Amino acid sequence: AIKEAGNIKRFIPSEFGMDVDRVDGAVEPAKSLFETKSKFRRVVQEEGIPYTIVCANYFARSCLPSFYLPTFEASPKDRLLILGDGNFKEATDRLTKLILAVGYSAFVKGDQTNYEIEASSGVEASALYPHVKYTTVE
């Protein structure tokens, strides 16, 4: 559809800040999502469509302050939310399963931080903006 339209200069897919080609060992339902997005990347490349992929380590800035708890804007100082009765076995709805699987891939497995950026295909943002003082998670 992009090629048929003829007026698209650059395609920027929504990757949710993740590099789906670097995910290793994801669990369902995120695994299927990542595989589909990765296959779509190959089609875009094979068709010669100009594209830019933005990977931001799964928007860690948005998730880390709240320990990946979507109900908090910042980490609680005096309490921690335990979902359910604390004996969480499995999510029953697909959306919760997907959110937990993506969080597992990003924060438990470290799929978005355990790789070097190849100069031929990408650049580290801090190299583009050396004047900006960055704060690390450590």
UniProtKB/TrEMBL annotation:
The keyword Signal appears for this protein: no
GO molecular function: 2'-hydroxyisoflavone reductase activity
Keyword terms: Oxidoreductase
Record's keyword annotation contains Transmembrane: no
Superkingdom of this protein's organism: Eukaryota
UniProt-listed Enzyme Commission number(s): 1.3.1.45
Domain NmrA-like: 1-70
Family: Belongs to the NmrA-type oxidoreductase family. Isoflavone reductase subfamily.
Stored PANTHER family: PHENYLCOUMARAN BENZYLIC ETHER REDUCTASE 1, PINORESINOL REDUCTASE-RELATED
Name recorded for this polypeptide: 2'-hydroxyisoflavone reductase
Annotated source species: Opuntia streptacantha (Prickly pear cactus)
